[in-house]
Amino acid sequence: MKTIVVASGNRGKLREIAAIFGGFEIVSMREAGFSGEIEENGSTFEENACIKARAVSQALGCMALADDSGLCVDALNGAPGVYSARYAGSHGDDAANNALLLKNLENVPAEKRTAYFESCVALCLADGRVIAAHGRAYGKILFAPQGDGGFGYDPLFFSDELGKSFGMAEEKEKNAVSHRAKALAALKEKLGGVGL
Q1: What is the pLDDT of residue 196?
Q2: pLDDT at site 27
Q3: Do residues 66 and 121 make contact, with C-beta atoms less than 8 angstroms apart?
Q4: In the chain, how many domains are there?
Q5: pLDDT by residue (tens digit) across 52-61?
Q6: Which of 42, 43, 68, 178 is nearest to 123 (CA)?
Q7: Could you give the C-alpha distances from 86 to 31, 54, 80, in angstroms and in order?
Q8: How far apart are CA 62 and CA 170, in angstroms?
Q9: What is the Cα–Cα distance from 86 to 153, expressed in whole angstroms?
Q10: What whole-number distance in Å separates Cα of residue 69 and Cα of residue 31?
Q11: Domain that holds residue 158
């Protein structure tokens, strides 16, 4: 079984990728021995995913997969977007990010709270080639969290496809319709063309 090193330490992301991307052994970059920091200074999800995948692949001489994803809210002109993980200032503070999102939408009516999660996954092959794919999940932002499943903005994101928040969804349900699932499925299709 081929190994793919995932350029992330986010346990939620690693679980999702392993569940969706079968046929490969999925290992986190820390487990594989990558100890450096990666500066995500791209202006798009694809740029950031490629930066992370290349950094890990080059450092370890392996296939590396990176995901960059975020929440894009129409009423906020696409924010938090690429800044989703650090929307409130410090990276990965889900509670603060969710609180700031609700505050910034407090006067926005239900019908104008449309949003989507976007994911770009990039796989950097050992020879330096990068293959990228995108996925989106559409929905709206709730007025209060619903459910305690998932991570990040999941309890605030009401999925159009599921008819409930990602926070209320079983892992298997979310993985069937999530932005990351769609991006990984698109990536798998592309990989067929390069013999992986």
Answers
A1: 61
A2: 92
A3: yes
A4: 1
A5: 999 999 999 9
A6: 68
A7: 24, 22, 9
A8: 33
A9: 12
A10: 22
A11: 3-192
Cβ-contact 182, 137 below 8 angstroms: yes
Q: Which residues contact 163 (CB under 8 A, 6 or more apart)?
A: none
Please identify every residue annotated as catalytic. 68
Distance CA 5, CA 31 (A): 9
Long-range CB contact pairs, 48-53, < 8 A, 24+: 48/82, 48/120, 49/120, 49/121, 49/122, 49/132, 50/122, 50/124, 50/130, 50/132, 52/7, 52/8, 52/122, 53/7, 53/122, 53/123, 53/124, 53/130
For the chain, give the percent of residues with pLDDT over 90. 69
Mean pLDDT of 116-125: 96
- pLDDT: is 80 or 11 the higher one? 80
Lowest-pLDDT range of 43-52, 112-121, 187-196: 187-196
DSSP for 123-188, written as a single string: EE-TTS-EEEEEEEEEEEE-SS---S-SSTTGGGEEETTTTEETTTS-HHHHHHH-HHHHHHHHHH
What is the helix (H) or strand (E) element at residue 5, kind and residue range? Answer: strand 3-6
Give the whole-angstrom CA distance, residue 10 versus residue 103. 26
Other CB atoms within a 10 A radius of the CB of residue 103 amount to 9
CATH code, 142: 3.90.950.10
Please compute, for residue 95, the number of CA atoms within 13 A of its CA located in the half-sphere on the CB side.
Answer: 0
